[in-house]
Amino acid sequence: MAESKKTAKKAEVVKSIEDLRKDLAAKQNDLLESRKSHRAGELVNPRVLGSIRKEIARLQTAIRAAELAAKESK
């Protein structure tokens, strides 16, 4: 018989807004360096650019949600 698929949800880690902003700055720096490497022809996997952009968008969303939650709790 076929087994049903079980989806494993990631454990949601709650980070402070400052930690999220530090992660965001690091990812933006990584994106900048990756773009420079891509222009120079040194980047082995150009798909990294898209994944970094998506991670930046996720971080920005998490920061915005944390700011709204902090605003509502006041």
- Average pLDDT: 88
Query: From the alpha-carbon coordinates, what is the Rg to the nearest angstrom?
Result: 17 Å
- What would you call the shape? flat
Query: How many structurally independent domains?
Result: 1
- CATH level-two architecture: Orthogonal Bundle
Helical residues, percent? 55-70%
Instruction: Give me the number of helical elements.
Output: 2
Oligomer: single chain
Question: Given the helix and strand composition, which structural class is it?
Answer: mainly alpha
How far from one another are the termini? Answer: 53 Å
How do the strands and helices of this protein lay out in sequence?
Layout lengths: L16 H24 L6 H27 L1
Pick out its properties.
74 residues, mainly alpha, Helix Hairpins, flat
Descriptive overview:
The chain has 74 residues and is mainly alpha-helical. It has a single domain (17-73), classed as Orthogonal Bundle (Helix Hairpins), CATH 1.10.287. It is built from two helices and no strands. The mean pLDDT is 88.
Briefly say what this structure is:
With 74 residues, the protein is an all-alpha fold.
